[in-house]
Amino acid sequence: MSGLPVIKSRKLEITYNIPISKTVRFWEGLKEGKILATKCRNCGKLHFPPAADCGQCLSSDMEWVELSGEGKLITYTHVIVRPKSFQEEQPYTVAIAELKEGVKVLAWLTDVKRKDIKIGMELKMVPKQLSDGRIAYVFKPLTTSA
User: Fold this and answer.
1) Which helix (H) or strand (E) holds 140?
2) Neighbours of 142 (CB within 10 A)
3) Distance CA 26, CA 13 (A)
4) Are 81 and 121 contained in the same domain?
5) Of 11, 56, 65, 110, which shows the fewest CB atoms inside 10 Å?
6) How many beta carbons lie within 10 A of that of residue 75, not counting itself?
7) What is the per-residue pLDDT across 57-78, written as a single tens digit (0 to 9) for each?
């Protein structure tokens, strides 16, 4: 300590209510076991995560499409020193994969030992119910038995 006078602040926790009215179909799809994206009817651009408006041509004429969830690992990192909001989690691996449909997705990589992770390995993105009741999606290795 430098000897300067300080006052310790109270713990600050912020929780947001994120409006999902334009993407509610995505969250419903996860509950149904589906991975959904939006596709612009004007220019054909595929958006994941889903978007209400196309960032390429600015059209709002979007349609829902189901993704295969299958892709290949592009890169990953294993997180040991976790951010404060993830302190309750065990160290985890975050990956970016390119899905067959061409979109790149960031998600946790689960059900694989760190030593077995290889760039280019085939992955499957699947919905996952989190311990706090929320639903998300994760990558798992794609195996012939899946």
Assistant:
1) strand 135-141
2) 16
3) 27
4) yes
5) 11
6) 11
7) 999 999 999 999 999 999 999 9
Q: 98, 48, 92, 49: which is closest to 73 by C-alpha?
A: 98
SS (H, E, C) 69-128: CEEEEEEEEEECCCCHHHCCCCCEEEEEEEECCCCEEEEEECCCCHHHCCCCCEEEEEEE
Q: Please give the model's pTM, rounded to 2 decimal places.
A: 0.81
Range of the domain at 128: 68-146
C-alpha distances out from residue 65 to 18, 26, 48, 49, Å: 23, 10, 10, 12
95 shares its domain with 36: no
Residue 124: predicted pLDDT:
97
Q: What is the pLDDT of residue 145?
A: 43
Same domain, 42 and 112: no
Q: In this predicted structure, what is the pLDDT of residue 14? A: 79
* Alpha-carbon span 48 to 51, nearest angstrom: 7
CB 46 within 8 A of CB 101: yes
Tokens of 97: 């994969």
